[in-house]
Amino acid sequence: MSAIRRSVITGCGSYLPETILTNNDLAKRGIDTSDEWIVQRTGIKSRHIAADGEYTSDLAAKATLAALKHADVKIEAVDIVIVATTTPDSTFPATAARVQEKIGMTRGFAFDVQAACSGFIYALTLADNFIRLGQAKTIVVIGAEVLSRIVDWKDRSTCVLFGDGAGAVVLQAQDGKGDKTDRGILSTHLYSDGRYYDFLCADGGVGSTQTTGYIRMEGKEVFRHAVTNLSKVVDEALLANDLQPDEIEWLVPHQANMRIMEGNAKKLKLPKERVVITISRHANTAAASIPLALAEAVADGRIKQGQLIMFNTMGAGFTWGAAVVRL
Length: 327
Ligand code: ACO
Hints:
The strands form 4 sheets. The chain has a 5-stranded mixed sheet with strand order 1-7-6-4-5, sandwiched between helices. The protein starts with a strand and ends with a strand. It has 2 domains: about 5-175, Thiolase/Chalcone synthase (Peroxisomal Thiolase, Chain A, domain 1); about 185-325, Thiolase/Chalcone synthase (Peroxisomal Thiolase, Chain A, domain 1), CATH 3.40.47. It has helices spanning about 25-30, 35-40, 55-70, 95-105, 120-130, 155-160, 220-240, 260-265, 280, 290-300; strands at about 5-15, 20, 45-50, 80-85, 110-115, 140-145, 165-175, 185-190, 200, 215, 250-255, 310-315, 320-325. Helix 4 links the parallel strand 4 and strand 5 (about 110-115). By secondary structure, it is of the alpha/beta class. The model has no long low-confidence stretch (mean pLDDT about 95). It is globular and about 60 Å long. About 30% of the residues lie in helices and about 25% in strands. The structure holds acetyl coenzyme *A. Acetyl coenzyme *A binds near residues 37 and 284.
């Protein structure tokens, strides 16, 4: 094997808004739901909600500063900032430009990625390609959302599912041997199928209705496709790295539904303790959910340097994907 350049995660950070809304709080607010229904169907118990005047860029900037501190990397060393989000501060410019300003970064470049809940893995893939091609040495990849701003609080079938938050990782170029023992991103696998656009979408948009719209979802269809697509993409990721399922030490999945994550873990023959689950406290934070979960498990010492992690996700588009990473 010849030496190749790898994108190594050298720092993680996260930020969650202060306000916590429990399932019982939702019921108290007049939403026709119950803690029992939500927990049983999804695993969600509470979610964080951004304060008035607190934007995606605020959450993203705080997560970024935490990740840079964790990696011991100075802002001046960052070449690129990529923000994956479905809830940008403005229609334009990119939220990433606002993050660049808020963290005091005056060089390099910044842009957003829109791939709904798959945004973090899409952004990670782009960052990995910039690093492998030698176009950047240090990149911050962020998933950040204020989904509470685009849920229809009158639609109980969706408003109970989502939350706000941000997670970030610092990627740095390092040379590897080119095999699965290397630290860094070993492979990423992305898919989308636009035939399913309408099954999970906002019912508005700047180019169509000149409104942002609210989240609409055919929950059963999303569930059905998630199970099949995630299973296939996980197999592909294992095969691409010559890995057996039991070599994966941690599954850090997109946090959409407890039952989907449990099904995934079973397929990888991973005990529940090896799956990072934050859905009960974070709900579905779309592009933010994987980096939030990763940052939490690294901070509390569960995931350690050198361990092999599988990320996987499924979201609107439909989009889906997986990544195999050695921390
Ligand atoms: N509280 C109480 N009852 C409710 C609620 C609620 N919050 N929401 C719906 N119900 C009722 C429905 O009205 C329905 O009642 P009925 O039988 O009298 O008509 C009943 O509960 C069952 O509703 P379903 O929609 O059939 O419930 P289902 O078992 O499909 O669960 C859920 C819904 C949890 C959304 C599930 O379909 C799911 O998890 N889907 C996948 C979602 C997902 O993975 N999303 C990820 C992508 S999201 C993203 O990427 C942005």
